[in-house]
Amino acid sequence: MTKIDHTHDPKLKSWVESANDNSDFPIQNLPFGIFSYDGARPRGGVRIGDKILDIFAALTAGLFAGDLFEAAEAASQETLNSFLALGEGPRRALRKRLSKLLAEGAEEAKRVARCLHDCDNVKMHVPTRIGDYTDFYVGIHHAINVGKLFRPDNPLLPNYKYVPIGYHGRASSIQPSGTSIKRPMGQTKALDADAPWFGPTQRLDYELELGIWIGQGNPQGEPISISKASASAAGFCLLNDWSARDIQAWEYQPLGPFLSKNFGSTISPWIITPEALAPFQIPQPKRPPGDPEPLAYLLDEQDQQSGAFDIELEVLLQTPGLAKQGLQPHRLSLSNTRHMYWTVAQMIAHHTVNGCNLQPGDFLGTGTISAPDRTGFGSMLETTEGGKHPVELASGEQRAFLEDGDEVILRARGRRDGYVTIGFGECRATITPAR
Questions:
Q1: Do residues 197 and 280 both lie within one domain?
Q2: With pLDDT > 70 as the criterion, what percentage of the chain qualifies?
Q3: Which of 142, 330, 350, 351 is catalytic?
Q4: Looking at the chain, which terminus has fewer C-beta neighbours within 10 angstroms, N or C?
């Protein structure tokens, strides 16, 4: 379990005023990301309120010395791969130094202030050079809901409660929040048709997921044990793994998703560290009576006691009709990471148990995280029961699936009495017409 220390103190405030006003990014958060401005090369930064601390500029100003210089230098590069590769110790030390620099009363406040940028004036980038991307399926309520659409009497396949199921995704099409998503083309086939047809998907969907950034990883052939697996998770973000449900239904047998998934995935651009999420770690929820105990290589007492998270997940939909009438986005879902059937450590341990090598900057998705009831379903496929019951919007519009011009917005917040609420920032994208 990541320890709680003075950087989590709810009384701690920042001299950056916007960080103290119900921001996703108070001084207790301090996430890392990659940004650029005025045509300059991308570089590492730390979010504080509505500002970004330019780590390269802070290095030049002499604000990091000794062992901290190496960590800050790695965090100032065009990607965060080398920083994530340093592991927990340097990351924690850098967090403590950043907290001191940005806290009220900091001696270096004026020097630090010269290294800040307004968030509105920068462009955010994918924070690492992603070598590989694996998407899991750990949201059991989503798995049951989708299974019921195809197998009403037996929604979960026999392996689900034994295996953290995953598939290899497409790293090159992962995009930062704010990048539009073009409606994909592909083959689809109606149940009563003799042959498939080619064209744009008619059943475009979102998926509400948590993303996990890999830190030090492992050499090929050397698995990461379940007792050490959580240390390989260097940070978290939001993930919308867009899905073309009609293309998926035709192509997924026998090898799983392909064109229905690889056209685009959207992430929130800030890496929220395990240290920032320490107050929101919780015991893994007990499995229902009759469910099998995880196999030995997936079972660790410490992971069961503190390997889950209590993070609120929200999905909002903004449509052209809502925007035209000046109406607020429609909430589609309010879920929580506590509904994950497998922990992050179990995902990593299973991923590497056969010797597969994870590398710094690799990316994992949890799969869709749905709550038990309809108000927390993590996809349109579930909410509308495959399009049978469209969502009614205040604008008079209906949505069975997503239409061109729709914007999907994901948000996340960690809340706990006695601690400052932190957020992930938005993960948003607008759908544009097929080419």
A1: yes
A2: 100
A3: 142
A4: C
